[in-house]
Design brief:
Radius of gyration: 25 Å
Structural class: alpha/beta
Strand order of the largest sheet: 6-7-8-3-9-10
Number of strands: 14
Helix content: 25-40%
Strand content: 25-35%
Order of helices and strands: EEEHEEHEHHHEHEHEEHEHEEHEHH
Largest sheet: 6 strands, mixed
Distance between the termini: 42 Å
Length: about 325
Amino acid sequence: MIEVRNLVKKYGDHVAVDHLNFTVEKGKIYGFLGPNGAGKTTTMNMITGYIASTEGDILIDGHNILEEPEAAKKKIGYLPELPPLYQDMTAKEYLEFAAELKGIPKEKRQGNINGVMSTTKIQNVKNRLIKNLSKGYKQRVGLAQALLGYPEIIILDEPTVGLDPKQIIEIRDLIKSLGKNHTVILSSHILSEVSAVCDYVLIIDKGKLVASDSPENLSRVMSGANSLEITVKGKEGEIRKALDLVENIEDVVYHNSIVPGACDFTVKISGDVDMRENIFFALAEAKCPILKMQSSNMSLEEVFLKLTDDRNQTGRLTGSEIFEDEKEEEGEE
């Protein structure tokens, strides 16, 4: 649905977006992440045609955003971080105005407006002036505007900013439901939100793409191996002896445990083989009961911090290259 090719945006000598390349497939929810000043909003503004790029091309369902702006923009619904609301209009008046601007046929306009008001749950405030609405309801009115005309692509820049916990959950559920019929790009600083909602994650830093994959794959690959964290009751030597009998274990790292009479280990397993049953039976036979066993994959927060840390500024990675870099580092060690 979206193809970004060699995208560059310069403001004088400052490069806000630096030769960015990625594609967005139909019917998926994408999380767009990066530190403040990474170029997320600039990129979103270029994708929507709000600002022009310095170099590169953006294709929206095959239409170049600069050469065929009308055809491209019809495919997009956009909610900026600060929704462009007219404060002296009622919510309904604003949506009627936006529907007319979007060229929605007059006979379909009212049904469309009623539909997006129902979806965003603003029917009860439709006749109130926007300036008198809470931050949460203003955000919902902005989202309703983005949904008008039911565009194939929905771009949301920080859609849950300023919302209370209940509203955040409702908006998350709404975004999930939108993913069934739309392609959604979601920018957010709340990484748990991205993990819960998104099928795919794009991470940029200093205008460059540093990772693109599913949250699960990023967590697994950045961990460097298939790893388990286990807490086992017994003596370290006995536990290690039992684990030595289990195939596909690459390494066993001991940690001091806060549980009396127990040991903590990180067990690294080669490949993607699930060795939990084998480990269970080996330790059970050694009469060393397992008190805890869980995967040690990185959280999205940890992945984000690792990829955008100053130590990684010279080594930008995308997709499977992350795994190759991890293997090279292990070889050097």
